[in-house]
Amino acid sequence: MEAGKMTLDDVARRCSFEVLVGSELLSGRTVAQVFASDRMSDVLASAGAGALLVTGLVSPQSVVTAHIADAAGIVYVRGKRPGPDALDKARVLGVVLLATPLSTFDVCCLLGSVGLSGADAHRREKLT
Amino acid sequence: MTSNEPLFVRQFRFEGKDFANAGSVSTEVKAILRSLGLPAPLVRRASIVSYEAEMNVVIYASSCTATLLVDLRRIVLTFDDRGPGIPDIGLAMQVGYSTATQEIREMGFGAGMGLPNIQRNSDSLDVRSTVGHGTRLEAVILIPPEQAS
Fold it and tell me: Fewest CB within 10 A of the end CB: N or C in chain A?
């Protein structure tokens, strides 16, 4: 597997994420990068295909956005839980939903510590 | 068959302010484009164009007729809405410009990225609007010759 990429199954296990929807899809999904935002247009503008979305937005729009953007899945932060409409949509569209009690910052640090990079990693490298 | 003869045409009619079904047209557009065997990056770009345009209608307009047309050379998405129209299209195309309410922003939209995102993912974009009447958006995504099959 390409450096900096790992399966969603591996990521969920190593970060102790709870799987809300899509446990059967985890091993077949590769996480290419991480993108964190509560703005769905930012996700559509800047997240690449295969991104793992980190968000506190639990509306059905987060699920549709992940589907449209070819995201690997969504991690909901701060113990937030999507409602039945969002869960149903995720099942129908095949979007993996994960959850964690951690904050956005701590989730991103954790995902970085297991070897994943952000969508703007190339820009960060130029700054440091 | 000539290269601009439509291979597929589908029309959708939907209502504005129907937040419960927001995105249903674009998920269908994506499924159709996948079923036509188009490459994933092209399907992704067209789906983003469709979803941003659909959300604009849901947020601002009262109703819309959307059309998906695919031929050997391009994907054409047209959104023709009845609504308030856009007084200054140039301003609306600027990143960060938005007239959305706080409620819309809490849904994750209305950050002033919609039309700029549509433009970024389109090879050509035409937006025409009449204030008090509605807006017509036509976005074209070209299919590279080697990928048209």
Answer: C
Map tokens 């703007």 to a residue.
Answer: A120
Dig out the tokens for A40 from the structure: 């769905």
Mind listing the pLDDT tens digit for each residue in A34-63? Answer: 999 999 999 999 999 999 999 999 999 999
Chain B residues with CB inside 8 Å of A85's CB?
20
Name the superfamily (CATH) of residues B15-147: Histidine kinase-like ATPase, C-terminal domain (3.30.565.10)
Q: Using one digit for the tens of pLDDT, what is the confidence trace for B102-119?
A: 888 888 888 888 999 999
What number is the ipTM of this complex? 0.91
Which of B3, B29, B28 has its CA nearest to residue B139?
B29
Instruction: Provide the pairing of β-strand B63-70 with B74-82.
Output: antiparallel
Chain B residues with CB under 8 Å of A62 CB are: 108
